[in-house]
């Protein structure tokens, strides 16, 4: 469970900021809604199903700049903010300017002075994001020398950010957690089915999202590449792999009993198993036999059992 964080630096009394802070606390107590927005915005920008991209450094400069615009749009879609008269949003009766920066260096135009800033930063490689509130005032702003007179938040302003969430987790991008050699092996086959098969052989005991599968398959019917009847579940079952889905309570229960990562709704987890003679810690009984996670490095395998929902 995430928690709201506040800065230790004394912040001047600001009832408007506190009202907006409390609005978010009621609207998204654990940060799960915001975490989903940040994850989906990265995926939207990568457009992996069409492009095969999955990393920030694969984007063009203009696309990176566009992330801030998408976050502004996607937050408004998720929370149904009213449009502001002078700024981007109106929340709890207060005008809000939405800012994003991959470096956390939010630029404040002169027209934002006096208004609240909803500023955010996110890092896909580390699967973290942060978002906070601060009042744009002359004392919080470096004076810009550029033509539009934008200025960055200065040290005092940064110290007075009231963080809603700081370095909070989001759904991981597992292609960034694998080595370059592993990703290259996954992406090497010409067939989308072969790439998905290799993904599930390689990324074991990891939460695999639908978007990752789409990025690897690069096909419209990407989830078909996971299913039985010719998909990865059929092929990899013969090699001793269980493909467990987060949309099935029976399968998430199997993951817990095996002691592996438990998939969330919309995710799958691939785990290789082997039979054991009796019940031991980390085992589960399926089709009349006990099974345990396979921890060896041999290619010899016994076909995995069939589970409900496959």
UniProtKB/TrEMBL annotation:
Top-level taxon of origin: Bacteria
Swiss-Prot/TrEMBL keywords: Endonuclease, Hydrolase, Nuclease
Residues annotated as domain Type II restriction enzyme NaeI: 22-299
Entry keyword annotation includes DNA damage: no
Pfam families named in the record: NaeI
Gene3D superfamilies named in the record: DNA mismatch repair MutH/Restriction endonuclease, type II, Winged helix-like DNA-binding domain superfamily/Winged helix DNA-binding domain
Keyword Nuclease: yes
Protein name: Type II restriction enzyme NaeI domain-containing protein
């Amino acid at each position: 469970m995430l928690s709201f964080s506040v800065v230790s630096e004394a912040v001047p009394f600001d009832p408007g900021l506190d009202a907006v802070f409390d609005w978010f606390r009621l609207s998204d107590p654990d940060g799960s809604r915001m975490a989903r927005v940040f994850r989906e915005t990265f995926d939207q920008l990568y457009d992996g199903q069409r492009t095969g991209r999955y990393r920030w450094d694969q984007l063009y400069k203009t696309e990176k700049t566009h992330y801030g615009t998408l976050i502004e749009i996607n937050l408004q879609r998720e929370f149904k903010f009213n449009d502001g008269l002078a700024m981007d949003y109106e929340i709890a009766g207060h005008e809000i300017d939405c800012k994003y920066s991959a470096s956390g260096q939010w630029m404040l135009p002169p027209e934002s002075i006096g208004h609240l800033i909803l500023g955010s930063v996110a890092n896909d490689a580390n699967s973290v994001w942060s978002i906070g509130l601060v009042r744009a005032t002359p004392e919080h702003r470096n004076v810009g020398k550029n033509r539009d007179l934008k200025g960055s938040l200065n040290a005092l302003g940064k110290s007075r950010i009231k963080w809603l969430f700081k370095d909070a987790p989001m759904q991981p991008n597992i292609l960034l957690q694998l080595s370059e050699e592993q990703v290259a092996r996954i992406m090497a086959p010409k067939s989308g089915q072969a790439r998905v098969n290799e993904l599930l052989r390689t990324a074991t005991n990891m939460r695999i999202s639908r978007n990752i599968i789409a990025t690897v398959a690069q096909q419209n019917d990407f989830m078909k590449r996971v299913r039985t009847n010719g998909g990865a579940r059929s092929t990899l079952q013969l090699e001793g792999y269980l493909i467990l889905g987060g949309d099935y309570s029976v399968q998430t229960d199997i993951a817990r009993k095996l002691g592996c990562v438990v998939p969330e709704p919309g995710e799958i987890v691939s785990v290789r198993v082997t039979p054991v003679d009796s019940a031991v810690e980390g085992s589960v009984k399926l089709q009349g036999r006990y099974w345990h996670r396979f921890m060896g490095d041999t290619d010899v395998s016994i076909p995995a059992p069939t589970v409900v929902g496959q």
